[in-house]
Structures are given as structure tokens and as C-alpha cells.
Amino acid sequence: MNDNISGWNTWSNTIEDWTDVSISELHGLMTGLMTACNAPNEQEWATVLAELSFAPLPDAALTLLAEEGEDTVEEGEDTVFQLKDKDDAYAYMPLVPDDEHSLYERVIALKQWANGFMTGFGITDCGLTAEENEMLSDLAKIGAIRLEEDEEYEGGEESYLYIYEFARMIPVSFATRKRKPVKELALISGLAIDAKTTKELQAEGKLPKPMPPVLNVMNQNNPS
After folding, report:
1. Which of 96, 112, 82, 71 is nearest to 172 (CA)?
2. I want to staple 89 with a disulfide (CB 3.0 to 4.6 A). Which of 58, 99, 172, 197 is the partner?
3. Quick check: 211 and 141 in contact, CB under 8 A?
4. What burial letters (b/e) apply to 70-107, b meaning 16+ CB within 10 Å?
5. What is the tens place of the pLDDT at every residue in 166-202?
């Protein structure tokens, strides 16, 4: 899929002056949030991003995020529409540059998307099944990839396509999750006095445990 069809160029042009995170990471955050929540409106997006300590997004960018969650879609491309149904979810694609960009750019963009998804889903405070916890733990390995611009990615294109497809299938697998209003997020409504800590939730298996920083099992299992 090229950059015009995927929306990469639209996102790049709309959010070019906002540099807190990459557009891939923002897209991942948006996706992670909307696998568990009803689609936020512009004000709700502004509030969520402010609570995450991001600089304010331009109005056009907030509109773009909100439009991704509209139920009335043209050409079936909005994100929340794809994520509401298991069959439609198979059409979902992480927002990364097309194969005319270097492999380095695409690997780094996918790494950023994975980290964004972890953030977006993490703030929803949803419980996880053992299978979901394992999937997110593996996604964290993608988010932990370390790669220098002049360094060759181990496994090349084949390995990249493998981890891309793995990352893409996580929103697909979470597609039928029951959603809640964004205003109910603890991030916005305020934590209860007896709220459990991240470490306590991890010990109970409700959040993925931190991953070793430089473990890349994906590449080890898929040599070139």
C-alpha cells in the first residue's frame, strides 16, 4: 500500500509541525485506545493527550483523529469502524511508510507504532487474558528494537514483514472487546484512593511485565 492510500501523506502533512511523537506512534496510541474505548471526540483527544503531557495538537490534527472514529465511513478506511468487527478488523493496517522508504525507516516506524499501541491500550486499564498478555509482551519486544540508521536490520525484508504482520494482528485479535466511554478512563476521571499500582497489576497478570530492553526473539526465530 502506498503512502497516499495508507494515509501516511495525509497524516504527515496534517501533523508535520507537532513533534512530541512520530505519526506512527500517535497512530498506535490511537489504535490501542480505540480497541477498548468508544472513539473520542476532538475535546476528549485534546484532554487525553494533555494528560499524557503532550503539547497541544493543531486543530486539523485533532479533527483527523476524531474522524478516524466516525461511524459513518467513506471507503471503509476509518480505524474504529475496522476495529468494531472481527471480519472488518482484518483490513486494519498500522500507519507506517511504504516500501519506497528505507527498511530502517519502516522498522523504526513499526517500533514506534508498537510503543504507541502499548501506551494507548495501557491507559484504558483493561484486564487481560493470558493470551492477550503474551501478545502484548511480544509486542513490547518490537517496541524494544534497537537499530542505528547505518545498521542492517537482521533478517531483512522477510523479518520486517513477519513482525509487521504480527503487530497488525494484535488490534484484529482485540477487535471484539467491549468498549467504554473515554471519560471513564482513570487518566481523565482521576484515580481512586485505593487504586492498585502498576507493579501490583503486573503481579496479578492484568498488565504485561516489563520486557528485557534488547531482546528480539522475532529476528532470532526468523533468520534471513
Report:
1. 82
2. 172
3. yes
4. eeeeeeeebbbbbbbeeeebeebbbbbbeeeeeeeebb
5. 999 998 888 777 888 998 998 887 644 344 544 555 5
